[in-house]
Design goal:
Layout lengths: L1 H12 L7 E5 L6 E6 L9 E4 L1 H8 L8 E4 L4 E4 L13 E2 L13 E6 L4 E6 L25 E8 L2 E12 H4 L4 E3 L7 E5 L6 E5 L1
Parallel strand pairs: 7-13
Antiparallel strand pairs: 1-2, 1-3, 4-5, 6-12, 7-8, 8-11, 9-10, 9-12
Length: 205
Amino acid sequence: METIEDFDKWLNEYKPPITQYVAVFDPNTGQVISVGPDHAFADQKHVLQISQEIAESIITAEIQIHNCQINVESGQLEIAEKKTLNKLDDMLHRIPDTKYLEESKSDIHLTYNSKSKWLKIQLSTDYGGTKKHKGSTGKREFIWDGTTDMDFLITDYNDPNLIFEMFSVTINELVGHNVTIKNIEYDKFSVYTRRLFKNYVIEYK
């Protein structure tokens, strides 16, 4: 009788272990290969724990697995989609001058030539662009739709309310190429943007 009571007590108090879901990924590209409960991939080295909601969305193909990638540097799962401005960082950010930075490694690198009056925009080689940095980890597949627009505002110095001009560049335009904006003829100016990438810098020459 005691055994039955003990079993009933155990059964009432028993809580099944929470299923943890993981994404298995290629360590070189970050591309997600498989998704499922962690016990199914106990022999895999390169896995990242993800939420049940995201895992189930991938398993049911609500989210396509080929659109999923692990950002190896941040350790986060990223899902490709076309991002519009209302999905980007809603705040306008001034792109900092490289001379005020201890490290100028960037995802988006702007270079202004004061003599020729042009502004060059480059994407890091980590994302298939042309701007090389010391210690770059090599080309990664970027996780944004290549037709996503990035808007840049050329404004009065440190004043985003006084806009001189605006231009847009798509990610596709920066893959393997530079984009140069000519006739930027201002004595002193700042460049503002809503961030899609993490690190932006501008270099004045």
